[in-house]
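$ ./design --mode recover --in tokens.txt
reading tokens...
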């Protein structure tokens, strides 16, 4: 009886196995691969080069540069193309079957691999040569979140000078080229609204009821320059025609903005322009004009920032002339202009405290500058002696590759 049960069990197992084998033979899975489908032609990448509208000196900047790619088998619909730079996708701005215009992502290096994928094609098109992408900006000086920074200057050696919180008075920090920050000495006052290099080793400071200079070599107050204003008045900014003549912005009580002409040889000043209730934040000499940025107060409410200018004739200023009013640009009306500077060819750059880091105004056109890679707030801007613009933020110092020189600063002569 036991042997019979074993035999029956064995027969059942054999039967089940035979059924499975037959079932598998009868229902062989259908392949999802259709040998008749070949896909679209693989894209061919012939050249990758900087777009001339977005660069200078044949440089492509990370995050902001645009390249023009030529080749074959691209799609005329931009969204049907994908371009990768070391695996990071760029933004396809326009396309034809033979050209692509692409904004590069935030990657950098000397040997970036460029690949193109087109909808319907089974394979990538790969550019044969490595492509170079240059960083547009970099943090310098080794500042961190513990720093509280106020104002920025650059001297003729490209040494950057920064005022920062100090106890009991303001700290003055030097950043030598390719070096980390170094606290050098302390200021005379507890306030810092502006710092400018004025030649003859003098670092001029505003803030409080005094314009004065610290000597960068002796690291002490320069007794030859100390100009007090009214005890209720506040100095805000200073800029130079040369090492003997300057203009200073100040606020007279209660809320009146003035530009003073400052004779640094005679150590005296005179009123050069009245801006009524304009809260002046930044001034800048460019060619034969003084540019003035600030915001008016109306019933105690700060309005949108504006930029004005006055013609310069010796120590005298002409009439106030409106250059730009951010009230005309709804997207920027909530921002305040903290700093202004100029490129050598006359483009005006404005640092904002919010919305975007820097605006550029050129031939009547206003637009954000390096928006993908710069962030507000900007507290100060200064151009170096070459192609770099420096942005001071609350806790960071940023070096921006402009690929063009800035306008001359009178104080550096």
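writing sequence...
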């Amino acid at each position: 009886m036991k042997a019979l049960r074993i035999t029956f069990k064995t027969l059942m197992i054999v039967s089940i196995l035979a059924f499975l084998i037959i079932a598998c033979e009868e229902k062989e899975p259908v392949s999802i691969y259709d040998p008749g489908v070949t896909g679209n032609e693989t894209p061919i990448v012939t050249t990758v080069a900087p777009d001339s509208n977005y660069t200078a000196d044949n440089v492509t900047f990370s995050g902001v540069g645009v390249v023009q790619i030529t080749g074959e088998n691209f799609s005329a619909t931009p969204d049907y193309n994908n371009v990768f730079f070391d695996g990071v996708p760029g933004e396809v701005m326009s396309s034809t079957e033979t050209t692509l215009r692409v904004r590069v992502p935030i990657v950098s290096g000397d040997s970036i691999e460029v690949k193109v994928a087109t909808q319907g094609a089974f394979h990538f098109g790969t550019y044969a040569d490595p492509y170079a992408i240059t960083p547009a900006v970099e943090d310098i000086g080794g500042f961190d979140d513990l720093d509280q920074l106020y104002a920025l200057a650059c001297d003729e050696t490209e040494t950057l000078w920064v005022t920062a919180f100090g106890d009991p008075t303001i700290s003055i920090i030097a950043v030598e080229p390719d070096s980390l920050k170094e606290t050098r000495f302390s200021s005379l006052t507890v306030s810092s609204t502006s710092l400018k290099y004025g030649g003859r080793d003098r670092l001029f400071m505003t803030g409080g009821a005094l314009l004065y200079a610290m000597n960068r070599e002796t690291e002490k107050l320069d007794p030859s320059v100390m100009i007090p204003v009214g005890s209720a008045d506040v100095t805000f900014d200073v800029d130079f025609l040369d090492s003997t003549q300057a203009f200073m912005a100040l606020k007279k009580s209660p809320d009146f903005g003035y530009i003073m002409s400052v004779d640094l040889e005679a150590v005296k000043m005179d009123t050069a322009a009245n801006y009524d209730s304009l809260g002046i934040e930044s001034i800048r000499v460019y060619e034969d004009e003084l540019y003035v940025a600030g915001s008016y107060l109306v019933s105690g409410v700060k309005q949108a920032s504006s930029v004005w200018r006055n013609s310069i004739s010796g120590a005298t200023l002409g009439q106030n002339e409106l250059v730009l009013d951010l009230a005309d640009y709804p997207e920027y009306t909530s921002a305040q202009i903290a700093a202004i500077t100029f490129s050598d060819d006359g483009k005006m750059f404005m640092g904002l405290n919010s919305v975007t880091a820097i605006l550029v105004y050129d031939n009547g056109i206003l637009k954000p500058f390096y928006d993908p890679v710069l962030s507000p707030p900007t507290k100060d801007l200064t151009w170096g002696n070459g192609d770099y613009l420096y942005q001071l933020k609350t806790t960071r110092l940023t070096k921006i590759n402009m690929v063009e020189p800035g306008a001359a600063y009178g104080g550096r002569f």
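exit 0
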